[in-house]
Design a protein that fits this description.
The chain has 206 residues and is an alpha+beta fold. Helix content is 32%, strand content 18%. The strands form two sheets. Strands 4-3-6-7 form a four-stranded antiparallel sheet, with no helix packed on it. It has a three-stranded antiparallel sheet with strand order 1-2-5, with no helix packed on it. The longest helix has 28 residues.
Length: 206
C-alpha cells in the first residue's frame, strides 16, 4: 500500500488563490471529527487567515507599507498551513478520505507505465563529421533513458549489436568506418524490463 501524501506547500499559489485555499481548509477543519485537536490550533489559522484577508483588501489603497504587511501576513499564513499540513499527514491514518476531509489535497498515486511504446519517427541521419551517423526518434512517454544499437549490415542471426545508452532520444555514433553500411535500432527504457525496439534501418557512413 502506498503512503498517502498530503500537499501542504502552497507557496506557488497567487495571493487570491492562497486566501481561498486557507478559507477552504478552515471550513473543512471546523468541527472535523478526524482532527479534534489540530496543531497549530484553528484559532491560529483563523487569526492568520483574517490578517491575510485584511492585508489583501488594503492593497489597492496602500503603498509600500500595505505591500509589506501583505507579504508578512502571507509568510505567516503559509507557515501555519504547512505546519497544519504536517499534522494532517501524521494523523490521517494513511487514509486518503480522512486526509482529504481536511481540505488539503493529496498527491495522486503513481501508476505503473508498463511496457513502453515502440519508437516512432525513427531515423538515421548524417552526423557533423565524416564517419558519423546520428539515430533518433520521437520522445517516448515514460522513458527514463534509451538504448541505441548498431551492427554491420546486413543483419543476420549471427550479428552482434553494440549498445550505447543515454537519457536523450538521440545518439551520435562517431567512430564508424566510411563507406561501410550499418544497421541501427533503438528502444526506450522504463520501469518494465521488456524493450520494444524500433524497426531496423541501414545507412552507409559517409
Amino acid at each position: 500500500m502506498e503512503t498517502v501524501k498530503v500537499i501542504y506547500n502552497f507557496s506557488k499559489l497567487k495571493d487570491d488563490e492562497l486566501d481561498t485555499k486557507s478559507e477552504g481548509v478552515l471550513k473543512k477543519m471546523t468541527g472535523n471529527a478526524n482532527y479534534p485537536a489540530p496543531v497549530p490550533s484553528l484559532d491560529k489559522l483563523i487569526s492568520d487567515t483574517k490578517e491575510y484577508s485584511e492585508a489583501l483588501a488594503d492593497l489597492p489603497n496602500g503603498g509600500t507599507e500595505a505591500t509589506a504587511r501583505k507579504n508578512a501576513a502571507r509568510r505567516e499564513l503559509l507557515k501555519t498551513l504547512r505546519l497544519l499540513g504536517l499534522y494532517i499527514q501524521a494523523n490521517c491514518q494513511n487514509n486518503e478520505t480522512i486526509a482529504l476531509s481536511s481540505g488539503y489535497p493529496a498527491q495522486k498515486a503513481a501508476t505503473p507505465v508498463g511496457v513502453l511504446a515502440k519508437p516512432e519517427n525513427f531515423e538515421v541521419v548524417n552526423g557533423p563529421a565524416s564517419g558519423s551517423l546520428e539515430i533518433r526518434c520521437k520522445k517516448i512517454d515514460g522513458a527514463k533513458s534509451y538504448v541505441f544499437e548498431v551492427t554491420p549490415a546486413p543483419v543476420t542471426d549471427a550479428s552482434v549489436w553494440t549498445a550505447r545508452y543515454g537519457t536523450s532520444k538521440s545518439f551520435l555514433f562517431g567512430d564508424l568506418k566510411r563507406g561501410k553500411e550499418y544497421a541501427f535500432r533503438m528502444a526506450g527504457i522504463g520501469t518494465d524490463p521488456m524493450l520494444v525496439y524500433s524497426d531496423e534501418l541501414t545507412e552507409i557512413a559517409q
